[in-house]
Amino acid sequence: MAKIEDRALAATASFNDDIGEEKRLALYRTQVVIREAEQRAFDLFLQNLVKGTSHLSLGQEAVAAGFAVAMRPGDLSFCTYRGHAHTLARGVSITKVLGELMQRDVGLMRGKGGSMHLTSVDHGVMGSYAIIGAHLPIACGAAWRAQFKGAKDVAVCFFGDGTTNIGAFHEALNFAAVWKLPVVFVCENNLYMEYTPIADVTSVPHPAADRAASYGLPRIIIDGNDADIVYRTAMAAYDKARAGDGPSLIECLTYRHSGHSRADPAKYRPEGELEKWKARDPIKIYRERLKQFGISDETIVAIDADVKRQVDEATEACKAAPPPPAGILTADVYADGGFAWRN
Q1: Per the count of CB atoms within 10 A, which of 22, 37, 148, 213 is most buried?
Q2: Helices marked H in 17-155
């Protein structure tokens, strides 16, 4: 019996070699940061401290964490309006993100961009895009630049399942495949395009993966709630892109725990569906994964407590911060920093 257990442990250790404890702790911490910050954004909205609407990634944390932890410095992220998670995953501070949502001067864009326009070039976050599909061709442009210059950075473009029915999706995929661009397209399939089930309006069961063959790409569907699977898939796609072997299209099956936006009570979901997906909560899955690989409860609890402390401190800093000065209203409208129109 002991020999069998020894072999099992050896197999587990070998299986762990491709990720390792340091990366696993980073994957867990990143997911917890996203969860706690997004939940706080929800709470602040209810306190009328977040104006307008917001689009949360509660339940989808493993996708952002897995792809971000696998990235190298210099790799570029292109996000949708549901971009808080990807922005936080690239290392932007909680204060900067919450401050932007709260329209405070400490925000990432000094309060001018708001929830749907988070951008941090220093962290490789090349914008959140409110127009569905608009960023896919832009990600191709960034990848083409890298190819032309012989650089090794990869453009990673995140989008929802509804984007697969937009013309820009097909144009970008075709362009990337023809030119073998170093770009990775990541579909976060949470089953709903705003309020409509994606299955009701799409001719194939898997809106991204089932169309990959049209562009000569392999069909890749993964469990988007398992950060290890996401991380490994991301690494393989990045290696392919850096080697000059072209793009990848990856469909991540996941689920948002909240509505499309803060204005959406999500009453269109079938009874029991949310509970079924919450049983596969990515953070619960990963806590158990850490224990399987010998990470102590004390270590896990310490990460949870540290992240909660950071979120609390960021919240108070944002509450105390002033709104942006009126003088920046017309700054940075054009590339020269001003707003005067030039023909």
Answers
A1: 37
A2: 20-46, 61-70, 84-89, 94-101, 135-149
